[in-house]
Predict the 3D structure of the following.
Amino acid sequence: MNKLASVLTALAVICFFAAFANAELNIGGDIKVLGVYTDNVTDFSDDEGDDNDDFMRVETHLFFTADLSDNVTTKVSIEADRDFDYSVERSFESDEYYYEGDYSSFGDLYLFLEEAWIQMAYLYDSGFNVKLGRQFVQFGDGFIIGDSQVANPFFLSDLGEYEVDPFDAVLVWFDGDDWILNLLAAKSAETREMDRDADLYALYFTYSGVEDYVFDLYFTFNNFQNTPIMDSPLAILDDYGYLDASVYNVGARVAGSAVENLTYKLEGTYQFGEVGEDGDVKAWAVEAGLKYMFDVEYNPYIGFTYVFKSGDDDEGDDDLENYLGLFENRVYGEIFDPWTNAGNLHIFNLAGGIDASEDISLGAKYYYFLAQEDEQWYGEDNLGHELDLYLDYQFNQETKAILAGGVFLPEDGVEEAYGNDDVAWFVRGGVKVEF
């Protein structure tokens, strides 16, 4: 509890001084309790090891936002995330459970500084804005930049759901009314003792001067200097867990609504650069989607999305042709998503939903996965099907009950690669309160 007490004491001091400063302080947060059951989501096998898992966890956020003078805003957000544990820890040497004599930890309490930023808006009555510190960043709808840790968590069974992580970054943008130019500099990894850094730089331009349309152009640069990459899509490039690479992206996006109730999006990006001493990066990706909202009672909708991520046709050379979604904010199937981060895929997604009542909403997402180059899947390109179902019940304005479940049916490619083709599935339920 020592870490928690320290954090709460610091936040209490902030509130005390803010009360006497020229600041409007807003305090809020949320509490989410989840129960999760997963089976075969890591190896698609009923026989090899016991990878079925059931657990409960609680996730809590507490945030403080202060609106200061001259368009200056600050925010601090703390996340606490832990399993239901009650101070029982596992001894890996004896594989037995024991109670710690010191109850100060009271289980593994994980505290995370989720946000801590300063924003200065419309500097000197101009269109310039600056935001510095740990912050959430998303350009477009997140296909190119939206999550600083796409492989965290890696499997659905790690937390029972996927999360979006913030960036440690400096974001500068100019607001020109019908256009915005963003400049981003973010640090993915910093090792002061040795040169093992990872940096992200981005230039993102958005034009919205045409009614019902948005046009985006962007350029990104990812610099990896002997960087640890075991928990990253880049781990496929280096067996030793460290990487030297320079990876660039150029791309464009258009989104809008040409027909009433019908929205669309189309985005394409080309990835190039150098990896290691002799390898070249040559990859590309496309995402195209349609969504139609029926103008009838219960607000039903249907949508279709196609995603292409290039694959490597010669794994024996030093070149990289697998498209890597290094910072994408996407979940392409809750069970199979970890295998989509390293590219070489055609993804077909059919989604739909309906408001069954004023308080209940239902949703469904179907995915079909097809390899772009079958060499990486031992000569097979048919990978599998996934169906995920969702139900939300809005108990009141602040409280929501959630229920979700999904099943993945492996096909020949997964069987050849893993030697298994057993059905994988999950169920997740819980309650979330915002305050």
Observations:
- The two ends are 23 Å apart (CA to CA).
- The chain has three helices and 20 strands.
- Confidence is low (pLDDT under 50) at residues 88-109.
